[in-house]
Structure formats: structure tokens, C-alpha cells
């Protein structure tokens, strides 16, 4: 049954009966706690991912690798990041594979990609909350492409460390990226406040209370400062 499912995956496409692949799902579920079995399944999936299977089949494989993928999957998935059709699903898998090699592959891809593919990878680094990506994301805050700068800001806001906050408040960004930076700084301040680091949170909130900030940002920052000080509105 399982071998039949892998054989069916070779010709699987949109509109095919997904039930033919169910034995693979069952085998993955049954392999929980069995590293050897998972390695074997991972190897078979990677072999197919590198073959001429359809986009639908690659989509399925990437989803399964989010469950059983290890560092062994990273080079193959990283090779798909520059492929417009498959980059999204490769990122989806790399976001969820716990191996540090997955995060490293995403960071390294930033220098090789452009436009929307690079923006996607920036977002994935935020999803992983990859603190090691803070320096490179900080540089992208001043990128000439506003969408890239905004994506970098949002990713830093997802990472939510003191270092991310420092990066967000250390550079002058374009007008188009300012709202994204403000939202990200608020996210960092809230994370610091939740961890009990009230003084650091207040410093960030104060940076957002100036008249140059939109009203809603000033209000959110004021509420944050009051919460940090243990006061109600």
C-alpha cells in the first residue's frame, strides 16, 4: 500500500484523488517516535521532490516535510526558494523544520533573491522568530524598495527581541515604511512588557508618542506606558 502511494505520487496532480496518498499520511503518523522510519520516509519524499513531479505533488511533499523534515531536507528545499512556482511551499516547510540549518538557509537566500521571492523569505524569518536574522533584517529597513523595507520591519516585529527593537529604532526609514516600523516597535514593546521588562518597554513606547506619529499609534503607546507603570487609563 505504501509503495503504491509513492508510485501514485509520481503522477499526482491537481484533480487527482487525494485518497491514493493516504498511506503516506498514515505511515508518517505511525512513525512518530521512530527516527529510522521517519528518515526512510523523508528520503523517499526528497527523492521525488527532486524529480519531475507536478507542482501539486511538490506541494504535498513540502507539507509532509513540515512534519518529518530534518536538516537533510534543507538543501533540497533551499534549492526551490528561487523557483517562483514552488518557493512558497519550500518556505512553508523551512519555517517549520526545527533544524537551525533551515533558518540559516533562509538567511543565506536573502542575498540571492529579489522582489517578491525575497520578501517571502523575509516573512519566513519572522515566522521562525529567527533572532540571528536581526542584523541582516536591520540593513533591509533602509532598502530602496518600500515593500522590502516594510517586510523587514514586520519580521523584526515578529522576532520581538530587544535587539530587534534596537534595530527598528536606530535607523531613519522611508515614509512608506514608517507605519510598519511603528507597528513593529509596538509589538516589541508588548513582548518586553509581557516578559516583565517594563523599563525597556517604556523606552520603546515613548518613542512612539511624538506628534509625528499617527493618533492611533500615540494612543497605543500611551496605553502601553500606563500598563508598564501599573496604572489604568
Provide the descriptors you would attach to this structure in a database record.
single chain, 2 domains, 233 residues, mainly alpha
Instruction: Note the main sheet.
Output: none
Assembly type of the shown chains? Answer: single chain
In whole angstroms, the N-to-C terminal distance is 64 Å
Beta strand count: 0
Query: How many structurally independent domains?
Result: 2
Shape: elongated
Radius of gyration: 22 Å
Nearest-integer average pLDDT = 96
Number of helices: 14
What percent strand?
under 5%
State the low-pLDDT regions, or none: none
How would you classify the helix and strand content by structural class? Answer: mainly alpha
Series of H and E elements = HHHHHHHHHHHHHH
Range of helix content: 55-70%
Concise synopsis of the structure shown:
With 233 residues, the protein is an all-alpha fold. Helices cover 67% and strands 0% of the residues.
Explain how this protein is built.
Helix 7 packs antiparallel against helix 8, helix 8 (115-127) packs parallel to helix 10 and helix 9 packs antiparallel against helix 10. The longest helix has 20 residues, at 175-194. The protein is elongated and about 65 Å long. It has 233 residues and is an all-alpha fold. Helices cover 67% and strands 0% of the residues. The chain has 2 domains: 1-109; 140-233. The mean pLDDT is 96.
Walk me through the topology.
Blueprint: H1 2-9, H2 22-30, H3 35-49, H4 55-68, H5 74-78, H6 87-96, H7 100-109, H8 115-127, H9 134-140, H10 146-159, H11 162-168, H12 175-194, H13 198-206, H14 215-228
